[in-house]
Amino acid sequence: MQLAYLLAAGWRKTVSSIACLLALFLLAGCASPGHQALSSVEDLPPRTELAETPFFADDSHFCGPAALATVLTAAGFPTRPEALVGQVFLPGRQGSLQIEMLAGARRQGAVATVIPDALHALMREIAAGHPVVILQNLGLSWAPSWHYAVAVGYDLQADTLLLRSGPLKRQALSLRTFMHTWDRSGRWAFVVSPPDQLPATATQAETVKALVAFERNASAVSAAQAYRTGLERWPHNPTLAMGLGNALYASGDKEGAQALFRQVVERHQLAAAYNNLARLLLESGNTNEARLLAQQGLAVAGPLRETLMETLKAIDDAAQTPKQSIPAAAEHRGQ
Known about the structure:
Layout: H1 2-11, H2 15-18, E1 47-49, H3 63-74, H4 81-88, H5 98-107, E2 111-114, H6 119-127, E3 132-137, E4 146-155, E5 160-165, E6 168-174, H7 175-183, E7 189-193, H8 204-217, H9 220-233, H10 238-250, H11 254-268, H12 271-283, H13 287-298, H14 305-320
Antiparallel strand pairs: 1-4, 2-7, 3-4, 3-7, 4-5, 5-6
Helix pairs in contact: 3-4, 8-9, 8-10, 9-10, 10-11, 11-12, 12-13, 12-14, 13-14
């Protein structure tokens, strides 16, 4: 019955191609009351539409690349679906996995952050100017038909959500219908942003995951910017501080890196911060303080004990041969 409703909503021409997407997490959704939870969101605008969001029509199996190209271009990383097919589309499965979608965004220089699985979070992002990639199951929980689309607007009075979806530039779905399709996909959604921005509803845990993953593909300068952005919202997060310290070191800002590691040592007493700070001090020739910090780090070393022992040995070797150049090893993130 639900599938028949969706056909009536404008999918007669494309239902055979909607089964184009695979998900990493094949979760059977539970029925939900849709938008009832929105009654407590007082500051949510009654309607918003990101009308300038790009549109890439798709009536094939490439709805993943099309959705990703849409949000990348909107975020300032112009690209086209065909340029992403080789990165996110799996020919053998005729679809795109969630992990590939996130990785595909990072390969283009963007941060990809999964947002909370709640309708009010999705609408908050739209209200903040961020189109959102959403995963739907347009079939049934036991016979899934996976599809990526981009949420670009909503109207609470009309009880609708607006999507860039397949061949439709402006598909208006009732919130009830949308929630049925989103529930059956596990309510998975993500936002693409440049390194100096975060999604409005990003949680601390998902932001840390997103920025650590972003760093693996980013330049040191871009990674540093992303970590700074995260620290502006969560200034006491040790993983973000360690990430920024490592990125600063990689970009050549050793003084900035040293300041970050010292801050983590003072606030959190992390073994990784003791090690990295000791290595930086060793590199600058300050073997006395480097040794003291390495010894302090050993007291809380845990699984980094061997690493700190190696650092302490390097310090002792340098003390005996002070002119020897000792490479730094500021690669431990901590936490």
